[in-house]
Amino acid sequence: MMERLNSLRPESWSSMVGSLGSAVGKVAGTPDIYTPKDARHALSKIKDPRYTLGSEKVDPQDETDHARIWSLDPEVLDEVKSIVKNASHVHALPFVLGTYNMGSRTMRMNDLSLTDPYMAFLMASSGLEGFAMPFLRGFYYFGRRSIWRHESIHARHHHQMAHFLEKRDIKKRSIEGNQTSKMDDAMYTIHEAGIEEALTRWQALKEARGAKEKATAAAAVLFYMEYAPFTGARNFFIDTKEKTLDLINEGKIRVPLKVAIGAGAFIVPIWLDAQTHYAANVGELISNVTPLSNGQVETAVTRGTIYTGIAVVSSLFSTKEKGALPKEDEDGNRIPTREYKFPYVYSPVTSTIRTLGLMSYLSRVWDAIPNYRYIESPRQVEALKKEISERLAPKTSDREHDFTMQVVNDALKPAQTRRRSAFPQDVYVKGGFIPALYLNLRDLYPRTS
Fold this sequence. Notes:
Elements: H1 2-7, H2 13-28, H3 36-44, H4 49-53, H5 63-70, H6 74-85, E1 88-91, E2 98-101, E3 106-113, H7 116-125, H8 134-142, H9 144-168, H10 182-193, H11 196-207, H12 211-227, H13 229-243, H14 251-276, H15 278-287, H16 294-316, H17 337-340, H18 348-365, E4 373-375, H19 378-392, H20 398-416, E5 425-427, H21 429-440
Parallel strand pairs: 1-3
Antiparallel strand pairs: 2-3, 4-5
């Protein structure tokens, strides 16, 4: 359909949207993230610059020092800055505040929604109900820098993972048998690991600058926590899909089935509620035995139904390709999501507890992981590990300490295994810790769960 539309116009649809985005971008501008001002703020939050950055002499005006401050290899940081600078400013729908496209490595933000003219018409002609959707536009502009930062952190994680895998020289094969690029491996790994949204939202809150950005980032974390119970259900739906729909080789059958199931996940509950009024009935039943009002319970049931639909649709986007994550066991059997995808369970209660636990864990260990070190010999790597271990000890349980050091060892392995002639070298420790965390997080939890 898109190809037909493109052929009917002298200029392709994507080019038109791109031109519109450029025009909007000139007016809206780009939020000041990854700028000297942003670097100065990030530097001011570091309590122990000598430990975290390897030196107290770090200049936020110097772009070469930005790599230390954000713990990103300069090549990766330049790529992220380019993605932010060249981000599109146009989206189709007001409720999609921003996206990072893994395939094209581009950000698309919602400075202008293509539905804004229709929203303006509703505001002019429909009274108060016309102001419902513009509320989202206000939320976007209120927290614009936070939303851009959040999407850029997605980009950072993908490029950090690609850089990490390149250093580890992990080789994967595509379905056709051709070697894939490390960026493809990174894309599949991040997408299938399951912690991306929880980690990026927490990190956006950690890096937030100013009251508005902190408020928006905190709201994003709270919205994710509302969805957290359904991440376990998503894993169940993924396993069900991979045991059923994905076994259908004929795409002409498989794809329409997936579309029908995705649409049905929303349409069927709406139809059932219209026929049975189950949300209202459940609300009335629970309100009779609890302090909650009928409306509160009915709203919770409705939102739960929507999140279940989102979990179903999310599962349909899961792929057989797992990147650097395990795909099959030693006998060639597919590995269920409980072994590779956070929260590694189906239970909504455990999903919520583990999501809260992950954010609490990050808060305890984050500042104990340095951003940067100038390493002159393999011996210094061992000394750095010892220093990290000593800082972690008072903040973590034995299990968390051992797990964190396992991740640190994985993060530092590329530096430690290089020949002596490769030294001295710049090591971005936290920049390696993040992809290593994606790959190792399962080991933080008991296998019997």
